[in-house]
């Protein structure tokens, strides 16, 4: 994996090479935050490490539990009690879910998690554990890992720019950028170019005090780790990575992304029941003729209105849509393809796809850029506004659809995307 910054210690390369040839295989423990956008990059990193000869053990919570029989039979999967009450899990409030999870796992000095790690590390039937790679939002991991003598590495599944924003949170509040004010939404954040106030990571529907506390503790866990892996690449975020390396004093900072392309095998999404019938449908469409429209389950509402607006395009560019519980008229079904969940990596890599209407999550953004597919961005929350800002204004690989969704506005955006793609050929 390509490193952005590394500090190495040890003897000569020749002697190290002789010693390494006699070493037993090692094992890496991995503990992702149990949300789709965090699970997938962690498993992709696991694929990369496994392909290089390391055994992989994945710790997972009851919430959004992984199915070992369905995916990655070469990995060991170990359950961890998360302690999230059913009503909190059902709320969908990410900050509340993480808070409940951390409270349960940190109880009694992280005793329960420490017991799990002790059992995993003591398993002599498997290679010795070298370290644990974890999501920094899982605050109990550092203490439990230290108790059993495990080094920690942090995987950041968002962009380097997003991590820079997290580190700058105290400054952003001190200087009045946050909480955002309606009159200042388009004001530049001069300390974090090219961002404006509206692009900053902020949630109006979560308890902002809780979010600040979580970010502060997650940042501390990251700074105290043995290394940092960010799912990005130098070609995209050179300036942002440079700022991080200057600010952080971590032995190793790696930017090996995009992990889904580095992996030697496809990592199935943590979403079950992906519908591969769409690939057969795409096989019958002309090259770059399809707009892939993705409505993530935590994404934006009003799917019927959005896709209904798309009917104004007629046969010019048939939309291909995925989404949860879409109730759509037969008119759309007659000239498009609507399914519940799509195999997104395969769809974006298909030659029939000429554009991507996306919520602009980081994984989706990386996957689209990797396949050269331009984007129509409709961000809603979290890091999506920030990603959109880079897609549109820094990398020039898409456009943003702002304001109320109207048929004429949708048609104009799609036609512009089509025209720009034609001009780039």
TrEMBL record:
Pfam families: UDPGT
Domain of life: Eukaryota
Keywords recorded for this protein, A-Z: Transferase
Transmembrane segments: none
Molecular function via GO: quercetin 3-O-glucosyltransferase activity; quercetin 7-O-glucosyltransferase activity
InterPro entries according to UniProt: UDP_glucos_trans (IPR002213)
Region (Disordered) residue spans: 1-25
Keyword Metal-binding belongs to the record: no
The family this protein is said to belong to: Belongs to the UDP-glycosyltransferase family.
Protein's name according to its UniProt entry: Uncharacterized protein
Source organism (scientific name): Miscanthus lutarioriparius
């Amino acid at each position: 994996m390509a490193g952005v910054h590394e500090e190495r210690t040890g003897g000569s390369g020749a002697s190290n090479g002789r010693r390494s040839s006699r070493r037993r295989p090692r094992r890496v423990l991995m503990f992702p935050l149990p949300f789709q956008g965090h699970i997938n990059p962690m498993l992709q990193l696991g694929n990369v490490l496994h392909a290089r000869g390391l055994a992989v053990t994945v710790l997972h919570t009851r919430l959004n539990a992984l199915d070992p029989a369905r995916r990655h039979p070469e990995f060991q999967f170990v359950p961890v009690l998360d302690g999230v009450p059913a009503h909190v899990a059902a709320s969908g409030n990410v900050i509340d879910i993480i808070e409940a999870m951390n409270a349960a796992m940190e109880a009694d000095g992280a005793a329960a998690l420490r017991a799990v790690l002790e059992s995993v590390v003591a398993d002599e039937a498997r290679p010795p554990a070298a370290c644990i790679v974890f999501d920094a939002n899982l605050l109990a991991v550092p203490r439990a890992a230290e108790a059993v003598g495990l080094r920690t590495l942090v995987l950041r599944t968002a962009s380097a720019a997003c991590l820079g924003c997290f580190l700058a949170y105290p400054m952003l509040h001190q200087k009045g950028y946050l909480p955002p004010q309606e009159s200042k939404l388009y004001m530049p954040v001069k300390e974090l170019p090219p961002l404006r106030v509206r692009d900053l990571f902020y949630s109006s529907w979560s308890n902002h005090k809780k979010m600040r506390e979580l970010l502060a503790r997650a940042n501390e866990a990251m700074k105290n780790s043995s290394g940092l892996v960010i799912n990005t690449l130098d070609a995209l975020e050179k300036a942002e990575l440079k700022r991080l390396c200057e600010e952080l004093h971590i032995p190793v900072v790696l930017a090996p992304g995009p992990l889904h392309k580095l992996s030697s095998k496809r990592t199935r999404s943590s979403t079950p029941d992906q519908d591969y019938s769409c690939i057969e449908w795409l096989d019958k469409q002309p090259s770059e003729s399809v707009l892939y429209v993705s409505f993530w389950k935590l994404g934006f509402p009003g799917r019927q209105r959005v896709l209904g607006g798309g009917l104004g395009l007629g046969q010019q560019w048939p939309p291909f849509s995925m989404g949860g519980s879409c109730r759509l008229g037969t008119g759309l079904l007659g000239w498009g393809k609507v399914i519940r969940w799509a195999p997104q990596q395969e769809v974006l890599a298909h030659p029939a796809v000429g554009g991507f209407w996306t919520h602009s999550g980081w994984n989706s953004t990386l996957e689209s850029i990797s396949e050269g597919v331009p984007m129509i961005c409709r961000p809603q929350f979290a890091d999506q506004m920030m990603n959109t800002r880079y897609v549109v204004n820094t990398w020039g690989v898409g456009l943003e659809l702002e304001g109320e969704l109207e048929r004429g506005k949708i048609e104009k955006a799609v036609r512009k995307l089509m025209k720009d793609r034609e001009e780039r050929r």
